Structure formats: C-alpha cells, structure tokens
Amino acid sequence: MSAPGVPGAPGAPARWEPDDLGDDWVARTLPLRPNAEGEVVATLVARAGAVTDDASLRAGRAGRTAVLYIHGFADYFFQTHLAREWEDHGIDFFAIDLHGYGRSLLEHQTPNFCTDLREYGEELAAATRVVREELGYGRLVINGHSTGGLLAALWAHSETGRETVDGLVLNSPWLDLNRPWFDRVIGTAVLDVVGRRARYVVVQHGPSEYSRSLRTESGGEWEIDERYKPYDGTAVLAGWLRAIRAGQARLAAGLDVRCPVLVCCSTQSGVNRADNPDLSRVDVVLDVRHIVARAPAIGPDVDVVQIEDGIHDLALSPEPARSAYFAAVFEWVATRLDAAATA
Asked: Serine aminopeptidase S33 domain: from which residue to which, for each copy (predicted)?
C-alpha cells in the first residue's frame, strides 16, 4: 500500500498525478525492485508544464537543461522556492523522494533505511531516464543536499551516472562524520561490525533543534509536512550509518566525476542546540571544514564556495544568505555549465 500522497500504485501504468504541493505540481511513482522489506518505490516530482506529452515541446527540450534535486536524510521535497530559482534561470526542475523517504515511504518500510548507498542507483537511473529519454531534455544537472549530495557524487562517479550527468551542484554535502577523530576512526570500525550484524540497532534518536527551527510552528519560515518529516526526528540506525560511512570512505579514496562540480557550504559550523544563538546562521549539522577538505576528492573539476551566515540547507537560510547562495549557484551555472555547452 502506498503512503499518503504517493500518486498511483506500484505496478500501475506510468502516469503523472496531482501532487500534495498543489498548484501545477505533479508526481509519478517509480516502481523499483523489491528489497528485503518488500515492495519499493521512489517518487519523481515536477511542474506539469515540464512533463507535457507534446511532440513539439519534446523536440524543444533537446536544447534545454533540467535539474534533478535529491534531498537529505529524514527529508523530502517541499522547497518550491528552490524550483522557482532554477526555472527563473531557464532550467526545468525535477525532484526525487528516494525510496523509504517522504512520498515514497510505504507502510511496511523502515523510514530512511538502506544498507548500501548503491541501492539508490536504480531510482536515480530511473528518474534520469524519464527526464532525458522520455521527456527529451538535452542536459541534466543534479542538485543534492547533505546525504543527497553524497549520493549525487557517488552516482555521478558510476558508469551510468557518468554518462548521464552534465553538472553537480552540491549543497552542504555530507562528506564526513561530524564527530571527533576517535568516533570517525575507531567508532567507524566498531560500527562496521555492529551495522552488519545488528542493522536496526538505534545509534541516535531525538529531535534536531536545527530541523525544528526551520518550521513555522517554531518561528521558522517553512511549512513542513509532519507525515514526511516528523517534528520529533527519525532514528539513525546502525546499518544505515554503516552504509553512509562506507560511501564516505569511497569518496575520500577519490572519485572520478568528470563533469563540473560546485560544492557550497557555510563559512562556519556550530552546535545543534536550542541555546545556540547562532543556530540560524551557521551549519549545526556538519563540520564545514570536512566539506572543504574532502570536496577535491570528488573529481578533477571542483569549485568550492562558502556562504556567510548560511545554515546547513543553504536554500533555507535566512536572508541575505539564501540569496547569496542562489547568486553563487547561478553565476557558476552561467560561467561553467553554459560555457561548457557552447565550447
């Protein structure tokens, strides 16, 4: 059974249906291979105008660029203002809710869980096939946030991703564990054993003050659906964190992402506590020093830009940091991606 808000049903003919975001947003279920927990789907979200089945529109898309947004941990796509920014710069916007997340979470599934980040390759390939082959877009950029940034880099390194992706824009990608050296090294070795044998052991749980601070009910700017992103947070399980650490190790060893890459993050990190006076102007989830240090391992063509007063999700930062982030992204798109397309 599909979770609330998931359009269609697994196994049904592929179609776009109205999405919970309203207006002209539509969504499409992407059936995937079953895993150990059973049935699996992902969900592709888009503007209705970007998926219109019209021969003349499809022909025109060959000269256009699309962007695919990948969310972070315990998250889903709701940032319609982010979509408008891309659209205002002539790039059509798509987003994916990964399996086990948001619109794609089925009743029998453990939320946000996987045992190997390579599992997500199937749905990223399916989503990009829809965008590039079915809809006919000539170029594709992936915009990944946090865990989604790590996934984007790893998939762009894969054979399928390398042939598909023309650029990466990574918003505070999760490239290392924000913990002391002992936890990152010794703790990871212990986790490798525990996560293999006891996948569902909870290693962390509890509300994130950062996540709470974003919400309108806590004085933040953003309306967030409790079904898809619970106010009290989501458990971090040993098997999932083991998969994250394995993916981060592959990246640290060096990837060969051939397309241009933009990595953005805040200029400062801080503690994820309610009494932190800088909660709304620093990254309290990741250590930005790790991001800057590891970004060059993604590939030979990586640019790093740090945003003053940016929070973990730079696209949700209070102004003026949010506009500074978007300005950096689209200046890079114009100078790097557009230049590469005309070279």
From this structure: 64-266
Using CA atoms, how far apart are residues 232 and 216, in angstroms rounded to an integer?
15
Cα Rg of the chain, angstroms: 19
Question: Given the structure tokens 């599909």, which residue do they identify?
Answer: 2
Which CATH number does the domain housing residue 266 bear?
A: 3.40.50.1820
In the numeric block, which tokens belong to residue 191? 């986790």
Beta-carbon contacts of 268 under 8 Å, excluding residues fewer than 6 positions away, are 278, 281, 282, 283, 288
d(CA 173, CA 251): 11
The predicted-structure confidence for 77-95, as pLDDT tens digits, reads as follows 999 999 999 999 999 999 9
Give the amino acid at 10: P
Q: Which residue has the higher pLDDT, 308 or 4?
A: 308
**207 within a domain of the structure (yes/no):** no
Total domains in the fold of the chain? 1
Q: What is the DSSP letter of 336?
A: I
Beta-bridge partner residues of 283: 269
Bridge partners, 296 (sequence order): none
The set of residues, in sequence order, having a beta carbon less than 8 Å from that of 136 and lying 6+ positions away, is: 58, 59, 61, 62
In a domain, 58, yes or no: yes
Give the whole-angstrom CA distance, residue 46 versus residue 69.
10
Is residue 141 within 8 Å of 66, Cβ to Cβ? yes
